């Protein structure tokens, strides 16, 4: 069964992560995604390695692979007038355009929203930048780690000052880019629905900074309600206790007690039912207020058993907890295997490329995994012929102009 976006064409002028993450989501949902790349160079992330997947004589970086499956790669030099003309023709035949150039960066080539709107008024044009199209920072470059810092995430991530390893930390993956990619996808889907009702396209202005502040979630609301700065708590939670990593007899584990019933059951499992009956600890607000008295008691109990012993015990008492899995253990986990998270895609040379599945599971339509991340320019001729109707003779003329690399 075809994916829900079958019949939708996306012109992808983005690179690195936020934009490609959004367009990969659209490709997974069945859209045809045409990724335009610089001749001979391509998306910057093609060289962001090691590690590299050896796809014949054209190794592909693991970084590029994570955000570009399901796409067609077309090389066009749109710094040249001939290239600009090709991009406009492709935009005219597309439903969505995604780009992440600096504010005004595409205007010099006549590829900004107003210019493209003139040839395709119904186009949904999504611009992703560090700080958005307006405001005092709009001309600044924006990168994930910088926005994690400016947007407040690093102020609440890491061990407290004075603790071993204390100080602000960035998250282990580029979450600001990823969240921006996901919000961009949501925005595009909303604009598609609007277009279906009205026939109108529109410009979507996405900013990493806006997204980062938006996903501070409970931490930003804690500040706005209390006017108190949230503190870095390492793996602990500002509003739920006990909810953090503890050292076991042979390593570490996560205990994630989310309510009073779970806490009472944990105390029974830990052989300390009197702790659950203590007036200081009976309710979550009390446990938060008396965190410093409770956590040493929990830590002492958990240190007596191995992680595996605790996981079995917690499961028997219906208390959330788990090991700190390595990547190897993640992909060997029976739940991950049962859900089909690990993918095997056939590369252009016939070898098998690893990938990670989209987490969306539809009952009536299917997520599409028909195409591995493409080699640079692999689909240029086919796209120009199939989408624009360029003949073989005209294709030779275009290639002679060096606009295709």
CATH homologous superfamily placement of the largest domain: Crotonobetainyl-coa:carnitine coa-transferase, domain 1
Tell me, what is the CATH class of the largest domain? Alpha Beta
Shape: elongated
Largest sheet: 6 strands, parallel
Which structural class matches the secondary elements? alpha/beta
Mean residue pLDDT: 96
The CATH topology of the largest domain corresponds to Rossmann fold
Percent helix range: 25-40%
Number of domains: 2
Rg, Å, rounded: 25 Å
Provide the spatial order of strands within the biggest beta sheet.
5-2-1-6-7-8
Q: Helix count?
A: 17
User: Runs with pLDDT <50, length 5+?
Assistant: none
Strand content: 5-15%
Overall number of strands: 13
Order of helices and strands: EHEEEHEHEHEHHEHHEEHHHHHEHHEEHH
- Distance N terminus to C terminus? 37 Å
Q: Supply the CATH architecture of the largest domain.
A: 3-Layer(aba) Sandwich
Structure description:
GO terms for molecular function: CoA-transferase activity. With 405 residues, the chain is α/β, with parallel strands linked by helices. The chain folds into 2 domains: 268 residues, Crotonobetainyl-coa:carnitine coa-transferase, domain 1 (Rossmann fold, 3-Layer(aba) Sandwich); 89 residues, formyl-coa transferase, domain 3. Helices cover 38% and strands 14% of the residues. The protein contains 17 helices and 13 strands. Strands 5-2-1-6-7-8 form a 6-stranded parallel β-sheet, with helices on both faces. Strands 9-10-11 form a 3-stranded antiparallel β-sheet, with helices on one face. It has a two-stranded antiparallel ribbon with strand order 3-4. It is elongated and about 85 Å long. The model has no long low-confidence stretch (mean pLDDT 96).
């Amino acid at each position: 069964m075809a994916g829900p976006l079958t019949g939708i064409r996306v012109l992808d002028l983005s690179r690195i992560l936020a934009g490609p993450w959004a367009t990969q989501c659209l490709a997974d949902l069945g859209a045809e995604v045409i990724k335009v790349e610089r001749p001979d160079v391509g998306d910057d992330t093609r060289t962001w390695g090691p590690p590299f997947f050896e796809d014949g004589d054209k190794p592909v970086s693991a970084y590029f692979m994570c955000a570009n499956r399901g796409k067609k790669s077309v090389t066009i030099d749109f710094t040249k007038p001939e290239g600009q003309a090709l991009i406009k023709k492709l935009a005219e035949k597309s439903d969505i355009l995604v780009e992440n150039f600096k504010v005004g960066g595409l205007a010099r080539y006549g590829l900004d929203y107003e210019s493209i709107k003139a040839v395709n008024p119904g186009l949904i044009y999504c611009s992703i930048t560090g700080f958005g199209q307006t405001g005092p920072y709009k001309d600044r470059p924006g990168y994930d780690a910088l926005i994690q810092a400016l947007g407040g995430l690093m102020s609440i991530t890491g061990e407290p000052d004075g603790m071993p390893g204390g100080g602000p930390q960035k998250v282990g993956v580029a979450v600001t880019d990823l969240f921006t990619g996901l919000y961009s996808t949501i925005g595009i889907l909303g604009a598609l629905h609007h277009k279906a009702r009205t026939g109108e396209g529109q410009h979507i202005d996405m900013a990493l900074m806006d997204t980062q502040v938006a996903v501070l979630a409970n931490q930003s609301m804690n500040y706005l309600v209390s006017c108190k700065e949230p503190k870095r708590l390492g793996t602990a939670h500002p509003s739920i206790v006990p909810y953090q990593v503890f050292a076991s007899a042979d390593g570490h584990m996560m205990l994630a007690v989310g309510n009073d019933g779970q806490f009472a059951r944990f105390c029974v499992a830990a052989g300390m039912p009197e702790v659950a009956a203590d007036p200081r600890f009976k309710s979550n607000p009390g446990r938060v207020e008396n965190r410093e008295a409770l956590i040493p008691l929990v830590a002492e109990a958990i240190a007596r058993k191995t992680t595996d012993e605790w996981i079995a015990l917690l499961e028997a008492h219906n208390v959330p907890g788990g090991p700190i899995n390595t990547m190897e253990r993640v992909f060997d986990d029976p739940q991950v295997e049962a859900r089909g998270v690990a993918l095997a895609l056939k590369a252009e040379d016939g070898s098998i490329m690893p990938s990670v599945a989209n987490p969306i599971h539809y009952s009536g339509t299917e997520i599409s995994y028909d195409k591995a991340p493409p080699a640079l320019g692999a689909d240029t001729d086919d796209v120009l012929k199939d989408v624009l109707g360029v003949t073989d003779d005209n294709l030779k003329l275009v290639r002679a102009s060096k606009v295709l690399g």
